[in-house]
Amino acid sequence: MGSTGDDEVYVTVSALEGGQLTLPERLFITDADPEKRATVPSLSFLIQHPSQDRKTTRLVFDLGLKRDLTKYPPAQQAHIANRQPTILHPDCADCLRGGGLDPAKDIDIVILSHVHWDHEGTPEDFSNAQFVVGSGTLHLLANGAGSHYPKAIFNPDLLPRDRTSELPPVSKSATTAADKQTKHEWKPFAGFPATVDFFGDGSVYVVDSPGHLFGHVNLLARIAPQKWVYLGGDCCHDPRILTGEKDVALYDDGHGGLRSVHVDTDVAKETLKRIGPLLKSPTPALEGHNEVEVIVAHDKPWREKNLHRFFPGKL
Questions:
Q1: Which DSSP symbol is given to 167?
Q2: Can you tell me the distance from the alpha carbon of 197 to that of 173, in angstroms, rounded to the nearest whole number?
Q3: pLDDT value at position 3?
Q4: What is the CATH number of domain 2-309?
């Protein structure tokens, strides 16, 4: 971990277990076996960032599932009953402790890709961390997101208000009800119209990744001079969608129409089109001969092939 010059900083990225849930394929990918269900991970990641004073800043991206399902709102518990079996241990805190870190003392920042139940985890474990979420997230927690994602499935008290900041709206004309906003500015980078250079040194970019849920963000992290990792959250729920082998599934919305797992399917597909070029090696989206490893949160084959890269291992 570290840098080779004043203007090049690299971070260390380690996967974290965030529990597992069971998904019916027909709700997520086209041409699915209507009976097939797969138990998949909800991946989280530890990012360790070096600074000039030799202090390491530790950032966790996503928190996976809660280890106590009774802590979810009743309406959400009813939904989770359809996602069984679930595997709740090890969770993020277990994984960090197993590598020698105390989640309550050693984690400085938590960024959530979004606040669906299988990514929100147990924020109370991270009692020293500053939480950062995408614009509109606190309004979503308090009010829901329409009929697909009603208020009843969210917990308005999920995040510690005194330690939670929202990224500013991407649109200059948009407003947010958040009490605290970060001072970051959105700028184009790597083919994405809106990114935040989180540490200000080109090592970690927060990528606005709209379509799945309000406030959904991804991370692009530089781990070596020509190597990057793209953490895609729920930009899609199956890596075959990224490669074009499958498409986003549409299914009956219960009101005579069709829906997908995304709050706005068309916008989600536009986000996927921007991620697609990163799969090429070298990627045309980044200058130089750069390679990008793209990892989505529910990629079961990735987890099975990369257990050695879970903390204290690294990518």
A1: P
A2: 21
A3: 42
A4: 3.60.15.10
